[in-house]
Automatic annotation (TrEMBL):
Organism superkingdom: Eukaryota
PROSITE patterns: ACYLTRANSF_C_2 (PS00440)
Listed GO MF terms: acyltransferase activity; kinase activity
Pfam families tied to this protein: Carn_acyltransf (PF00755)
Similarity annotation: Belongs to the carnitine/choline acetyltransferase family.
UniProt domain Choline/carnitine acyltransferase: residue ranges: 6-447
Protein name, UniProt field: Serine/threonine-protein kinase drkB
Keyword Nuclease part of the UniProt annotation: no
SUPFAM superfamilies noted in UniProt: CoA-dependent acyltransferases (SSF52777)
Keywords, alphabetical: Acyltransferase, Kinase, Transferase
Length: 495
């Protein structure tokens, strides 16, 4: 990036990685993927182990995989057709829903499973060591927004949320994924998905699209293994149903909008000396100021992969320069040239703090390290971290607007949920001819008071749709202002 070498260690952790629930903190189970030859396939709440290498240690062709996946679909359909009295007690459905439990409850449940019967530990190991998981879905999402919601907040019984990543394939051919974010960041996952798209989705007639089976029939391939479980009645009758119900209830409050703004793109923005990322961030600030009535703490993710094992740093978009511009932007008697000048200063300052974050000079990860060190040494946080102003500034996971730029992949959508019940999540990409967005929000629920949030009165509740409309209007206003005044401004150059 910009002539700098980036740390590639996160790529090592993409495959054969699983988060394991433990007290006081979870851990990662990582197996060398070079030694692993299987994936796990979830189908109607059952888990199958699918070996993806043949007896000669060659990867199965697409045709071979099709044969094996059809076997899984038919096997699962047969089991569904059996009357309840004839179903094997060792083949319960929806065990994956346990990974949607609160972490302490999942820790307790997993330990109980291991202690109840050694068979459960063997099945857990098959899932945890697998290269990745594939979830076959019977639903048919009709829009990108519905696809996003299905990937994030649906069908918990057919998932294993602790896996590094899961591919989801729906009955109508739509494809999505669900990732465990603690293990890796979007930059490496993007690279993997881009490689897959270029190799397998372009359909250029090369080896990549070869679909014939080398083996021609299942007799040459070992059938996928259906994992068995021996669970206590408490887990089967209470814990799994409760996990499914709670996830469905909580997931139903999530709103996700996937949308493109085709009015703006990199080409058009640079013509008036605007850097696309900064344009979007200023638009987010103007939209937030209008819908919330004030500036709110905002998180923009910046990577620190110029450093060994670097992950992310927070770019705190709200600055004094941003506030000075926002306070003047909508004043009817404001001098337009002065408003444009203040906007330019806000954009320049955003560039500065972005470079500070990318070069390891941000403050949030430093504060995180101090917080962890204090907790390990004394068991309690220093006063800084309990001061109301810390939460008010976004500290402790209290950012009202959570944002991330995933530009460079026109066909790829990604997103995340807000940090707070009343917050907004904004994942965006800046392409040549359009800006893409996934915007998320939560509906009000009984759980709001149990979730984190800064002290003081709650902000107005804003839906993803309302924020999207305010955001697109903000883009129009910023662009019009800069188009009329860009000759007098220095370029906001690219980082």
């Amino acid at each position: 990036m910009g002539g700098h070498v980036l740390c590639m260690n996160m790529f090592r952790r993409l495959f054969s990685t699983c988060r394991i629930p433990e007290r006081p903190t979870d851990r990662f189970k990582r197996v060398d993927p070079v030694t692993i030859r299987h994936i796990t396939v979830f189908c109607e709440g059952r888990v199958f182990v699918l070996r993806v290498y043949d007896a000669d240690d060659e990867l199965l062709t697409i045709g071979d995989l099709e044969v094996q996946l059809l076997h899984i679909l038919r096997h699962s359909a047969y089991l569904n057709s059996l009357p309840a009295r004839k179903r094997d007690a060792d083949l319960p459905q929806f065990v994956g829903a346990l990974t949607a439990l609160r972490r302490d409850k999942w820790t307790e449940t997993r330990q109980a499973m291991v202690e109840f019967d050694p068979l459960n530990e063997r099945s857990l190991d098959k899932i945890e060591s697998s290269l990745f998981s594939l979830c076959l879905e019977s639903s048919t999402p009709g829009t990108p927004s519905e696809l996003a919601r299905q990937c994030a907040a649906a069908n918990a019984g057919n998932r294993w949320f602790d896996k590094s990543f899961q591919y989801l394939v729906f009955a109508n051919g739509m494809v999505g994924a669900n990732m465990e974010h603690a293990n890796a960041d979007a930059t490496v996952l993007q690279s993997m998905f881009r490689w897959l798209g270029e190799r397998y989705l372009n359909r250029n007639g090369g080896y990549e699209t070869f679909i014939e089976s080398r083996h021609h029939s299942l007799e040459f391939l070992p059938p996928p293994e259906l994992l068995r479980w021996r669970l206590s009645q408490e887990i089967t009758l209470n814990t799994i149903p409760t996990a499914l119900t709670d996830f469905q209830r909580d997931g139903s409050t999530l709103r996700m909008i996937v949308v493109r703004n085709k009015t703006f793109g990199k080409t058009k923005l640079r013509a008036v000396k605007l850097f696309p990322d900064i344009f979007v961030q200023m638009g987010i600030q103007l939209a937030g100021f209008r819908v919330f009535g004030r500036v709110v703490p905002t998180y923009e993710s910046g990577h620190t992969r110029m450093f060994v094992e670097g992950r992310t740093e927070t770019i705190r978009t709200v600055t004094s320069e941003v506030l000075a511009w926002l306070q003047m932007q909508d004043q009817p008697d404001a001098d337009e040239a002065e408003v444009a000048d203040k906007l330019k200063r806000a954009m320049s300052r955003h560039k500065e703090i972005s470079l500070e974050a990318l070069s390891g000079n941000g403050i949030d990860r430093h504060l995180l390290g101090l917080h962890i060190a204090a907790m390990q040494k004394t068991g309690s946080p220093p006063p800084l971290f309990t001061d109301p102003s810390y939460a008010k500034s976004g500290g402790g996971g209290n950012f009202v607007l959570s944002t991330s730029n995933v530009s460079g992949y026109p066909w790829l959508w990604g997103g995340f949920v807000p940090m707070l019940p009343h917050g907004i999540g904004i994942c965006y990409g800046c392409e040549n001819d359009f800006l893409s967005f996934m915007i998320t929000s939560f509906d009000p629920s009984d759980r709001d008071q149990q979730l984190p949030g800064p002290p003081g009165p709650r902000l107005p509740r804003v839906t993803a749709a309302e924020f999207q409309r305010a955001l697109f209007k903000a883009f129009e206003d910023i662009y019009a202002l800069m188009e009329r005044n860009h000759e007098s401004l220095k370029p906001v150059c690219k980082m």
